[in-house]
Amino acid sequence: MQAGPWRITALLDASGPFFLPAGAAFSGATDDDWARAARIDPEAFGPDDTWNLAFRCFAIHLPRGGYALVDAGIGPADSPASSWAPVPGHLLERLAQAGIDRRDVRLVVLTHLHEDHFGWSVSPGGVPNFPNARYVIQRTEIDALGGDSVVHTAVIDPLLATGQLNTVDGRVCVAGHRGDGVSVLPTPGHTPGHQSVVVRGHGRQVVITGDVLVHAVQLADPGVAYRFEADQDTARRTRRAMLDEAGCRPTWLATAHLNTPFLRA
Ligand SMILES: [Zn+2]
């Protein structure tokens, strides 16, 4: 996907069934919502109400050199996501297949600090996998972690040790400029400090949503809550605002968990 000078590559870390049936994960969805969702993302629907989902990251080629990586997947076999996600993921192989050297990643944006989004950010030995990147995370997201959260030892402490943690507050342009560039945008609800990435170029906009949308049923009806949203009302408001804004200009949505990487909004 191209937005002006910005080339966005989808990288599939893994895919597989979710540990809960779709009906239990999105209990507020109506039959009509499910029918519309099946037209948007038919691959999400497995037998016996199974929800099949992708675990996807995105690389953005930076015209001045290097790449930004958005999210870091479920990680290797022994990653924190291994208790429920289809590990091991394959992000490092996918990067190599796309011709992207890990050392050329200048920015890693973590949309939020769930284990299926930070999996490859730091190796199990505590060494950041992207040695020349700053890791962009909203301050609110880190502040919302419990003091004994595994995320501190798995991600935050190693990044502090190497000086690679770049904590941000609110909307921040991380490459180019705001009218034509790459920005992070707070999109709370799924987690308190969740952020999405907005890429704008030559009149086109690509929004890398993170988990604002985790299933097509939330596109069919943005009011449908996901069971594991930290604040479902805030998540609904965020989803509606994102889709309303997308209606104002040509926009593609790039999602982590739908089975199609790019969808026209
Ligand atoms: Zn997720």
TrEMBL record:
<dbReference type="InterPro" id="IPR036866">
    <property type="entry name" value="RibonucZ/Hydroxyglut_hydro"/>
</dbReference>
<feature type="domain" description="Metallo-beta-lactamase">
    <location>
        <begin position="56"/>
        <end position="257"/>
    </location>
</feature>
<keyword id="KW-0378">Hydrolase</keyword>
<protein>
    <submittedName>
        <fullName>MBL fold metallo-hydrolase</fullName>
    </submittedName>
</protein>
<comment type="similarity">
    <text>Belongs to the metallo-beta-lactamase superfamily.</text>
</comment>
<dbReference type="InterPro" id="IPR051013">
    <property type="entry name" value="MBL_superfamily_lactonases"/>
</dbReference>
<keyword id="KW-0862">Zinc</keyword>
<dbReference type="GO" id="GO:0046872">
    <property type="term" value="F:metal ion binding"/>
</dbReference>
<dbReference type="GO" id="GO:0016787">
    <property type="term" value="F:hydrolase activity"/>
</dbReference>
<dbReference type="Pfam" id="PF00753">
    <property type="entry name" value="Lactamase_B"/>
</dbReference>
<dbReference type="InterPro" id="IPR001279">
    <property type="entry name" value="Metallo-B-lactamas"/>
</dbReference>
<keyword id="KW-0479">Metal-binding</keyword>
